[in-house]
Design brief:
38% of the residues lie in helices and 28% in strands. The protein is α+β, with helices and mostly antiparallel strands and 151 residues long. The chain has a four-stranded antiparallel β-sheet with strand order 2-3-1-4. Strand 2 and strand 3 form a beta hairpin.
Length: 151
């Protein structure tokens, strides 16, 4: 009978724990997010936050101009999120489908919102609109988190 290498028996429970953790779906994890934020100190409460990263490069053009970005904010973003938002300029880097690295000016849109299906639809509509309007290879990067906030 072949002996097992040292530590193999010990690693089996760890491997099982890792496998169990990997089987969690987003549906299992998402309900925990507000619970984590329930520890918000008064007067704050759990609020959803999304960051969207909009690359400024456009196929066939040098970049998304300030005028074009302002129009996008006025026609696409503000009507969907009239209660408020924050935009800041950044410098981004990404790898395209052909493997090349690109650096470009980026605008980051930060929105705090109540988590519901309507807001989710609005966020995805913004991503789709930007991708189509500015001929992007991919929709803007989306980063979600739950934060403690008050208004």
């Amino acid at each position: 009978m072949c002996e097992r290498p040292w530590g193999l028996r010990r690693s089996r429970p760890i491997a099982r724990a890792i496998a169990a953790a990997l089987t969690l779906t987003s549906a299992d994890v998402l309900p925990m997010l507000p619970a984590r934020a329930e520890g918000c100190a008064a007067p704050t409460s759990a609020t959803q936050q999304v960051e969207l990263y909009f690359g400024a490069s456009v196929k066939g053009r040098p970049f998304v101009t300030e005028r074009a970005w302002s129009k996008f904010l006025d026609t696409e973003v503000t009507p969907r999120f009239p209660d408020g938002l924050t935009v800041f300029d950044a410098h981004g880097q990404w790898r395209s489908g052909d493997g090349r690295i690109y650096r470009e000016a980026t605008r980051v849109l930060l929105i705090l919102y109540k988590a519901d299906a309507a807001s989710e639809g609005k966020i995805e509509a913004l991503r789709d609109a930007y991708k189509k309007q500015f001929h992007q290879e991919d929709a803007p990067l989306r980063v979600d988190s739950t934060v403690c906030a008050t208004f």
